[in-house]
Amino acid sequence: MLSSLQIDPLIALGVLVATATTDAAYVMFTSSVVERRRLPAANWSGLWYLLSSFAVISYTSNWVYVVFAAAGSWLGAYLTITFLHRTPPPLGPCAQ
Question: What is the pTM of this model?
Answer without folding.
Answer: 0.57
